Amino acid sequence: MSIRRLPEKLVNRIAAGEVVERPAAxxxxxxxxxxxxxxxxxxxxxxxxxxxxxxxxxxxxxMTGADMALALERHATSKLPTDAIEDVTTMGFRGEALPxxxxxxxxxxxxxxxxxxxxxxxxxxxxxVAEGPAALAKGTRVLVEDLFARVPxxxxxxxxxxxxxxxxxxxxxxxxxxxxxxxFAVEHDGRRVLDVQGGQDRLARVxxxxxxxxxxxxxxxxxxxxxxxxxxxxxxxxxxxxxxxxQYLFVNGRPVKxxxxxxxxxxxYADLLARDRHPVVALFLDIPTxxxxxxxxxxKTEVRFRDPQLIRGMIVGGLRRALxxxxxxxxxxxxxxxxxxxxxxxxxxxxxxxxxxxxRTEPAxxxxxxxxxxxxxxxxxxxxxxxxxxxxxxxxPLAGRAEVATLPPPEADDHPLGIARGQIAKTYIVAxxxxxxxxxxxxxxxxxxxxxxxxxxxxxxxxxxxxxLLPEVVELDEPACDRLEAASGxxxxxxxxxxxxxxxxxxxxATPAMLGAIDCHKLVTDIADDLAGYDAALGLNEKLELVxxxxxxxxSVRAGRTLSVPEMNALLRQMEVTPHSGQCNHGRPTWVKLxxxxxxxxxxxx
Length: 606
Hints:
The chain is an alpha+beta fold. Helix content is 31%, strand content 23%. It is built from 18 helices and 26 strands. Strands 5-4-3-6-2-1-7-8 form an 8-stranded mixed β-sheet, covered by helices on one side. Strands 9-10-15-12-13 form a 5-stranded mixed β-sheet, with helices on both faces. The chain has a 4-stranded antiparallel β-sheet with strand order 20-21-22-26. Helix 8 (259-268) runs parallel beside helix 9 (308-325) and helix 12 crosses helix 17.
């Protein structure tokens, strides 16, 4: 078989297979061209998910008729004034997008430069079919119709219109996130689905394109290491999602998808999130062009770093530092659905019985330790109708209690988490802060505090241990005993002292003092299961981080335990100075705040 030179139309179709795999890929190339043209506003109109129609209009610099003819030729571009492709700073640089799209669709290109006349050029599946003057403002308008209509082998692999629309919208969101100075608008089948104004700050743009609540539940990231800068916003661990669809990485303003980000995020949020929960993240990495190669993927959605370990370490370190600096912060307010569950219960009036708190035959009322006589007949007439709080025959039990104060209570404004006022259901601490009502899950909060103390032990400050009066023998299978024996040195830094006791048992001599009286057999069994169950790719230290979380759960204050007011306040004060105390070891919030405005709304005062 002889070798032949492929015709230009076939070459363009092959190139289109690499660059334009679906409508979203074509849309990405067109919007990137608009950004490179210096546009301040970009409008996108989509029909049937972009399969039948894609239109992108911008107010950029525009093109002359001669430049339009060149732009439709392969490898013709204005973005590489020299041959130094490693110094490219624009979104595009290959000059393949327009001719590739024009070879598999009907493309109408209209453009006008400032002070010049508009011009139009129509290409139908690689053939120029029309050309002439056009009426439009300064800028460019590109219309793509019937993508892959004459390439049925490619068209049949497209997904449904809804799926293709979702991919198109994701592309625009990522590009809009990278350029908060540019306004973007998207219409789908005549309906406006996205409209963001230019000139926004980074946090406002990210929140507008993901979730509005991110503004109040995010942390800023700002880190420099040499010539590399990492910025962006990350969500609090308690503000998370079930899927990782709100994680974005931008390199020199270019949105990329990199597995490096996934691993770095897992490392940064280790022991702060459950393994099936994911943070909301938008990170912007500015790096010298000599340290990154953007020409490694046909669609330019991947990059290659000269020093990937530096970038991973920077992301993990920058995020951990930002999370550490925000200590006990948690989601700032309860969910709207939970808040809406508060309501005024309807009460039915009953005939007057003469007294608000019972009949006159009752003895004196005891209020704050003082005997008060029952109200007189004259005063009783004020209460014409009785509003019962509970049945006299079945009084509601009180879940909390007030204690006689021996010292003046501290001021709430001196402490971010306020002052404890009581306990609900032996599980939740109610505290009064300067700006609202704080509710704390005592078990989740103490679990985090214990974990942080264990982590300090792993960092070199050994956790104090409590020797057992009688060492306890725990029987396990031989592989489990082998794993425990291999990790015994590191477990000792966590306060667990054990040694091998025959082929299928270990002897426990000490446990962490902070855990108090615990079930040694259950603790050691859980530790052995953790060492065996986690990914084999994890190092021993990483596994022990996860083991520490299991140990913290054993030693934390359980729900159902009654705490005194001093114990509650001690827990609140410790939370205020402990990193990550705003979320438990599984990523759930340890406290929520009901602002005073919300309380007043519940009672109709606002």
